[in-house]
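Consider the tokenized backbone below.
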């Protein structure tokens, strides 16, 4: 056993187990055993038969769909894609053990492709979220990126969720506009300023994921949840101080959809 990587905490294996096709799991499977986890992972990839041949997938399209149109990043954390979703398993953590035990991109890709095609019962993932070549591309990108530290290069570096935490905006004419980003869990501005007094805060939503905008401390205001093309807004009266604006849709604030409002 001296040549094997150290075992990770059971929580890591539990995340991995949640990603595996049900048919690959046995009642005697123990999350703490990396060997058992990676063996099940290999069986899942071999059984589904969905891994694509190298060079046939469009990784740029896969990343774009994962972070944006595919909506995967709204639920999953994937460091290379810049997504921080918390409603589903953290994909970097879920596949870390597999990578450390020598399983490559195609194995992870096969498991992901199977999960896209056969979501678990009662899963929050929509059936047919992506299909055909798009599903192939998303699975191939996750196979390349999950549990693989570092940054994407080349064209891949131009795609994904951008860091807007230091972008700023200011209220004009008693109105503060803070749009959601089109891809990922973030507002277009991570910082905002406004004068004390009556203020209307609005959030246009260009994303296919539903969002709203609310203000902390609680009771300071909250707009309705809206889909693509809608605007969430509310009017409040604020004293000088520091507030947090955020999206109250479950998991979105935790995924990074928040910012700081300074009122002077």
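A designed sequence for it:
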């Amino acid at each position: 056993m001296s040549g094997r990587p150290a075992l990770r905490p059971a929580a890591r294996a539990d995340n991995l187990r949640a990603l595996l096709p049900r048919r690959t799991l046995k009642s005697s499977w123990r999350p703490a055993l990396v060997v058992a986890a990676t063996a099940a992972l290999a069986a899942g990839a071999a059984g589904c038969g969905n891994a694509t041949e190298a060079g046939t997938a469009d990784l740029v399209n896969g990343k774009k769909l994962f972070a944006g149109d595919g909506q995967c990043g709204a639920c999953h954390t994937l460091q290379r894609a810049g997504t921080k979703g918390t409603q589903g398993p953290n994909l970097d953590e879920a596949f870390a053990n597999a990578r450390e035990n020598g399983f490559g991109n195609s194995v992870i890709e096969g498991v992901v492709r199977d999960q896209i095609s056969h979501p678990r019962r009662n899963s929050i993932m929509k059936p047919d979220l992506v299909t055909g070549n798009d599903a192939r591309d998303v699975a191939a990108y996750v196979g390349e990126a999950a549990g693989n530290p570092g940054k994407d290069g080349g064209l891949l570096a131009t795609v994904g969720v951008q860091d807007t935490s230091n972008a700023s905006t200011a209220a004009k004419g008693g109105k503060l506009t803070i749009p959601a980003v089109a891809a990922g869990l973030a507002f277009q501005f991570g910082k905002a300023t406004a004068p004390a007094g009556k203020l209307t805060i609005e959030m246009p939503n260009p994303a296919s994921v539903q969002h709203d905008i609310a203000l902390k401390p609680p009771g300071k205001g909250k707009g309705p949840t809206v889909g693509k093309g809608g605007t969430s807004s509310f009017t409040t009266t604020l004293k000088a101080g520091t507030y947090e604006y955020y999206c109250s849709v479950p998991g979105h604030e935790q995924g990074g959809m928040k910012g700081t409002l300074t009122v002077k």
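The two ends are 62 Å apart (CA to CA).
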